[in-house]
Amino acid sequence: MFDKLEDIVLRLNEILNELSEPDVANDQNRFRSLMKEQSDLTPIAEAYTAYKKAKQDEQDALAILEEESDEEMRELAKEELSEAKDAIASLEEKLKILLLPKDPNDDKNVIVEIRAGAGGDEAALFAAEIYRMYQHYVETRHWKSELMEVDDTGIGGMKSVTFMVTGAGAYSVLKYESGVHRVQRVPETESGGRIHTSTISVAVIPEAEEVEVEIDEKDIRIDVMRASGNGGQCVNTTDSAVRLTHFPSGIVVYSQTEKSQIQNKAKAFALLRAKLYDIECQKAHDAEAEARRSQIGTGDRSEKIRTYNFPQGRVTDHRINLTLYKLDKIMDGDIQEIIDGCIAADQAAKLAKMNESA
After folding, report:
1. Burial class (CB in 10 A: 0-12, 13-18, 19+), 34
2. Can you tell me the distance from the alpha carbon of 47 to that of 27, in angstroms, rounded to the nearest whole number?
3. How far is CA 294 from CA 103, 225, 280, 288, in A?
């Protein structure tokens, strides 16, 4: 591990030297690439510098205890030794986490799909509430959200909704939301007061660049049509909605959220690229059985990951056995504690696997 850390420090110094060269400043692609690498390596180098300082403090304190007879000085040295040992242990753990293999998609923007499952209108209402929960969470992170496609019920529910989240590290955070979300509550239409269980599914897909996914135009049918809407909504009077049918995969995407056909077409292609890229990622994911076992849950989108129990005001994440009694706050976007728990558990599982193979 320490040889790797020394290599990282050397590489960071090389990058800093390169960034000071005039030729690099004029090459925007090279400049961005180096800045990205610097951003990735700096936290590791800083933690390693702090670790080496703590090791030096430990040695200095031990030297004082060996040479010094003054009791007051020895007590101070003992305190410094204890602090240094605590810092060393903490920094070693931090460095191991920083050196864990990084998901190549972590820095990407994401496309989030929410679909109502079992439960009819109640599931659609819950899908709309989960959509609003994510919108509030996106606002707290100062990210940007853009609606791509929605199929609403006209009574406040959503059969499905797709939106893009743009922001640094969006995928690294939101990927833990993929799976089946279950709600338990008494619907407003339930006269007997019985608790109903409904489900929705959430898929978090990394955005794909054009260079990552090649789409042959011969494999696609493009249909344009008028956007539709439910009772009383304003709808376009021009053929601005776009539907793409990708024959090899059978994927059909539809975009009508923009007034311009060009904008809807761009959104539809972005969504299609992301879906095709996600299929390839899922194939790789399924092929790596060992990697899948090191992740939180199975990584399967049919897996039930969370239950929202309204009568008891609790939310339980089944992957990490975390139960929180603050359902109102969570539905208002306060989901960071759950995400942090998933990240910590994921890192712990990967560290344990790394230690086993060491």
Report:
1. middle
2. 30
3. 13, 46, 20, 10
Instruction: Show the tokens assigned to 107.
Output: 């820095």
Residue 333 CA to residue 329 CA, distance in Å, equals: 7
Query: Is this prediction's pTM over 0.85?
Result: no
What tens digit of pLDDT does each residue of 122-151 get? 999 999 999 999 999 999 999 999 898 888
Which ranges of 202-326 would DSSP assign to H, the alpha helix? 261-287, 289-293
Report the SS3 class of residue 16.
helix
C-alpha atoms less than 13 angstroms from C-alpha of 166 in its C-beta half-sphere: 5
> pLDDT tens, 345-358?
988 888 887 776 65
One-letter identity of residue 178: S
Strand (E) positions, the chain? 110-116, 144-152, 158-166, 179-185, 196-206, 220-225, 241-246, 251-255, 304-309, 314-317, 322-324
Strand, coil or helix: 358:
coil
Give the Cα separation of 10 and 253 in Å (integer): 47
Amino acid at 326: K
Residues ≥6 apart with Cβ < 8 Å to 43: 98
**What is the full DSSP assignment across 82-142?**
HHHHHHHHHHHHHHHHHTSPPPTTTTS-EEEEEEE-TTHHHHHHHHHHHHHHHHHHHHHTT
Neighbours of 331 (CB within 10 A): 18
CB 184 within 8 A of CB 118: no
